[in-house]
Amino acid sequence: MAFLAVVDSLALLAMSALLMQGSYVVLGVVLVVTVLVNIIYLRSDLLPAKYLTPGLIFLAIFQIFVVAYSGYIAFTNYGDGHNGSKEQAIGVIETSGRVRVADSPTYPVTILDRDGELAMLITGVDGTASVGTAQQPLQPVSEAIFEGGKAVGVEGARSLAFSDLLARQSELLNLEVPLTDDPGSGALRTPDGTSAYLYDSVMVYDEATDTFTDSRSDTVYFDSGDGAYESADGQRILPGWKINVGLDNFVKAATDTSIRGPLLSVTVWTFVFAFLSVATTFALGLALALLFNDERMRGRKVYRVLVILPYAFPGFLSGLVWMGMLNQDYGFVNQVIFGGAEIPWLTDPWIARFSVLFVNLWLGFPYMFLITTGALQAIPTDILEAGRVDGASPWQVFRRLKLPLLMVSVAPVLIAAFAFNFNNFNVIYMLTGGGPRDISAGVDAGATDLLITLVYKVAFGSGTGRDYGLASAFAIIIFVIVAVISALSFRRTKVLEEIH
Amino acid sequence: MKVQTSTKALATVAVLSLVTLAGCSSTDAEPSTSTAPTTDAAPQLSGSITVWVDADRAGVLADVASDFTENTGVTVELVEKEFGDIRDDFTTQVPTGQGPDIIVGAHDWLGKLVQNGVVAPIELGDRAGEFQEVAVNAMSYEGNTYGLPYSIENIAMLRNVDLAPEAPESFDDLLATGDALMASGDAEYAFLVGLDPNAADPYHLYPLQASFGSTVFELNEDGTYDPEKLAMGGDAGEAFATALAAWGSAGVLNTNISGDIALEEFRAGKSAFLLTGPWNVPAIKESGINYSIDAIPSAGGSPATPFVGVQGFYVSSQSENRLAANEFLVNYIGTEAVQTALYEVGGRAPALTAAFEAAQSNPDVAAFGAVGAAGVPMPNVPAMDMVWSDWGTAEVAIINGAGDPVELWRTMVASIENSISAG
């Protein structure tokens, strides 16, 4: 009950912080969840809910929200070149489209405040002072106060110090004083309040038509509908912005030939890898479990500890160590175990696939060993004795009694292991980085790439720039595949329950 | 009755906890709202700037930051991040409006940063002339300068003076010396350079490529790269590809030797030559090897110019405090004292000419600087990631003899040109 009080106070703290930030959606969610949690735990009934609530909350945050957000991104073109909003893109294009007029001098400037409006007090090259504002081009002033050659003040206006400028900086940084009445002569801007430079606006934005015009070449850039400004002959301005593209990413994944070919071969390998990983780890784990289950074996406790050790190391650490050991010229395996042979463990496509499966076997069999040990010990011994009395050989005892009873409890674990290995990013990425790369493929796909490593490469752009939209589309496709397989498999395990 | 008592107890505990935590939260909130002037919607701290640095440079910046705060009243918040994470995290965070104001970064990030619209141009003004020209060029893209440079680095040929007393004139001479040492049993390798079995290392092999006359992109008049015109093809590139294949089959280049392995073997005295950068010099000093830093000998007749890497600071395009950020960069980090301090911490030559010349008193820095004087910056165009990737894979294939080198090189050039025109 005190725990509920702590949770409530934390929720209140979060809500007050969210209120100050203005994130009303998240605030609403936190409020609703807190009220629900309070109701569930303060009422005396609703016992199942009391047990399920923490798990459900974490499921919602770490699974449901993540999948939903990935799904949302899959329908946009978020990635390199389409990073922010349209307003931000327009602002950046305008800013970088200002070119300093060649050979123009640096003008020392003092910023003045004239009746609330900012003005620039410029010291010209010849030492004379001029003042201008956004509306009024530079006009010479006769009585300016000079300090060491720089004009620092004028009657009737207040010179602003750096701290004043900080408070009004967005106004200052946008202040543009035309040099003369002719707009083509450029405008003065200051980036720091002490020096002003003459700029030409090369990229001019027309809000009415939503176009940019390049004043040097008179090219007009239209909003292409694709998240970027494009001219008539296909030239694009950087940056673009993020827009919704509907099903484009999914269509691209399915129909773009440079993606589809590698995608198919990688999918096939992913299924094969997951299936073989589960099969080999289960076989080895079960074999060891059966062996150690026998009372007659000595030193079982020691062996059990040794067998658990690979499971104790973090997967990516083991991956890196194995990568070093399998180095063709300097690795431990080639130098010591094979006495100086030069087997290309990680650089030949088929040997690399074998290496990956072998390392995954090494990493995964202790887990299966533990599970099957527990499941074996749960098999009632009288059934096994009955079988032996009936004259069954050890193999028949195993095949017809132990295995079916084992599968009832182990089948969900196997399905989960399949789903895990389908997305086993660590082993593949650490060991081969996706494997010997196929030079002719358009996408960076290798011989040992799984779908998930392919998604990683597409998302984080080790080749063609980050494309979160396409990567999210791939991720959703993977999710659907794994979900369908798991659902179908679980249905089939219900048949096994009937045996029990 | 029992139920009522426990509910009362619960309510009391709940209220007490609420009050305590509410009290804690309100005392935290005070300072942040007091300095914010009344501007737009959400309360922003226009009295502070956030700077992302990596662990090495954080110490120097802490001193500069306190100076800045004393003089201008703007607080500087330093956030330490992993250098490799900064570019992508920055790109993701800036559009949300919650990103930092300044980041430290390498010059070849600029293309991506501009493509994603996350950096704003800075105006060095007349101070641009005070920096090394290659540094300012590296930090510019399409006519605008985006970053304030603070260090320059390049690779050079490190020579074990005890094994090879004289610097070779050409790469063939170098290999001849190396082979003689191997024949007499004094060395195990003719030449060492760190490569990767999947990606080779186009950055390290570039000087050899340049010595055949093959560069990456064509240069414009102002010295910047023209990202539309790939210059890696043609006879020069194919000559380099043929040479690569020959070196690969002769065992001069081995993609199984990683950077770490190459360094270790050089430190153990197993090779007279190592192609590497200033980051490995401390380890070599420590091993006691008598080393000399030489220019990279030419393999194809033209000068073997290495890539120059420039590091600097960028300003976010969505920064709420651009004025303070610009001031901090140009007038504080751009001063000789700070540039020298950053050099002392990082070992890389400073970008400000005055500090660069003072640093020449360190013979290693002077030697690397002499090699890099003719160097070109790595291209900072957005398409570079794609180029590195294809380039590296092709080099691996050529070195390992996976096909005809000229064919492989041509395929690579075509593939890169495709991606550039498509992207």
Please work out how many helical segments of chain B DSSP would assign. 16
Q: Which range does the strand content of chain B fall in?
A: 15-25%
| Anisotropy-based shape of chain A | elongated
Return the average pLDDT of chain A rounded to an integer: 86
Using the CA coordinates, give the radius of gyration of chain A.
Answer: 35 Å
Q: What is the strand content of chain A?
A: 5-15%
Q: Helix tally of chain A? A: 17
Major sheet characteristics of chain B: 8 strands, mixed
Helix content of chain A: 55-70%
**What is the molecular shape of chain B?**
globular
Structural notes for this entry:
The complex is a heterodimer of chains A (500) and B (423). Chain A is built from 17 helices and 15 strands. Chain A is elongated. In chain A, strand 2 and strand 3 form a beta hairpin. Chain A is 56% helix and 13% strand. In chain B, strand 10 (217-219) and strand 11 form a beta hairpin. Chain B is of the alpha/beta class. In chain B, helix 8 (234-250) packs across helix 16 (405-422), helix 12 (336-346) packs across helix 13 and helix 15 (384-399) runs antiparallel to helix 16 (405-422). Chain B contains 16 helices and 16 strands. At the A-B interface, helix 1, helix 4, strand 1, helix 5 and helix 6 of A face helix 1, helix 4, helix 11, helix 15 and helix 16 of B.
Which helices and strands, and how do they pair?
The complex is a heterodimer of chains A (500) and B (423).
Chain A: H1 2-21, H2 24-42, H3 47-74, H4 86-96, E1 98-100, E2 107-114, E3 117-123, E4 129-132, E5 139-141, E6 144-147, E7 150-154, E8 158-159, H5 162-167, H6 169-173, E9 177-178, E10 187-189, E11 195-201, E12 203-206, E13 211-214, E14 219-223, E15 229-231, H7 248-255, H8 257-293, H9 300-312, H10 315-325, H11 332-337, H12 349-377, H13 381-389, H14 394-422, H15 425-431, H16 451-459, H17 468-499
Helix pairs in contact in A: 1-2, 3-17, 7-8, 7-17, 8-12, 8-14, 9-12, 10-15, 12-14, 13-14, 14-17, 16-17
Chain B: H1 2-34, E1 48-53, H2 55-72, E2 75-80, H3 83-93, E3 102-106, H4 110-115, E4 119-120, H5 133-138, E5 140-141, E6 144-145, E7 147-154, E8 156-160, H6 171-183, E9 192-193, H7 202-210, E10 217-219, E11 225-230, H8 234-250, H9 259-267, E12 273-276, H10 281-287, E13 291-294, E14 307-316, H11 322-333, H12 336-346, E15 349-350, H13 353-359, H14 363-372, E16 376-377, H15 384-399, H16 405-422
Parallel strand pairs in B: 1-2, 1-3, 9-12, 14-16
Antiparallel strand pairs in B: 3-14, 4-14, 5-6, 7-14, 7-15, 8-12, 8-13, 10-11
Helix pairs in contact in B: 2-12, 8-16, 12-13, 15-16
